[in-house]
Amino acid sequence: MTAKIIDGKAFAAKVREQVAAHVARLKEEQGITPGLAVVLVGEDPASKVYVSSKGKQTVEVGMNSYEHKLPDTTGEAELLALIARLNADPAVHGILVQLPLPKHLNSDLVINAIDPAKDVDGFHISNVGLLGTGQKSMVPCTPLGCLMMLRDHHGSLAGMDAVVVGRSNIVGKPMAQLLLGDSCTVTIAHSRTKDLAEVCRRADILVAAVGRPEMIPGDWVKPGATVIDVGINRIERDGKARLVGDVHYDSAAAVAGAITPVPGGVGPMTIACLLANTLTACCRANG
Ligand code: GUN
Q1: Which residues are in the Tetrahydrofolate dehydrogenase/cyclohydrolase catalytic domain (predicted)?
Q2: CATH 3.40.50.150 fits domain 141-267
């Protein structure tokens, strides 16, 4: 079998088009422009790339982008004061603090200082609780993007065996909640899971979010399964810099029914969902 490639880049472009059309209507009919504030503390090179990409795409769909770049010497009180200002600013509908924060800052404290209604990452403890109890919440962007691709490919996910490899708060745990919400039978596996290969082989839907380059080979994939590869790992091969996922693409694509490539799979969907969440936050704020 050769897997169908799930084209996240094309899907994300469609989502952005829909967001842009809705933003244009909001402006014309209600004079409202959604605004997204992104806060970057420090000089992490990967974070800088993500933040500039987020800002660019925010403007491209017609929203206002407010970038706050702070030095890595920024203290907690100063960062919390900025968040308080953004919480109170009616022009800002979404707030995102880029992670990881420098070590001297307490990420939980900072994230939980964001107004949950503006928490477009869905990381605030209130949103985590709402998602876990099946209530309306802001949903973390990467798992939301994965779910959208899965629903688009399968229609209903009810009754499918889903295995999520990785238990992070950003991807693994919310992904499992979303799949459970769509009536999958969900297993969360991780680095301490016994017989990880066997667990993966049971999956109709296999979501890899461990951050280890090409850790999951094709012979861990059930024939015909759908593989969602969340990993974005920079490696060097044959003297060239390359991006690879957490799944060994060639061997997995030979047995899977469908697979997301890296790059061009989950990655583009994450920012598209961030824009969609900002629009949602803006619509909720304006009744
Ligand atoms: N760092 C890596 N992924 C993310 C994300 O989805 N949101 C934020 N805020 N930081 C990240």
Answers
A1: 6-121
A2: no
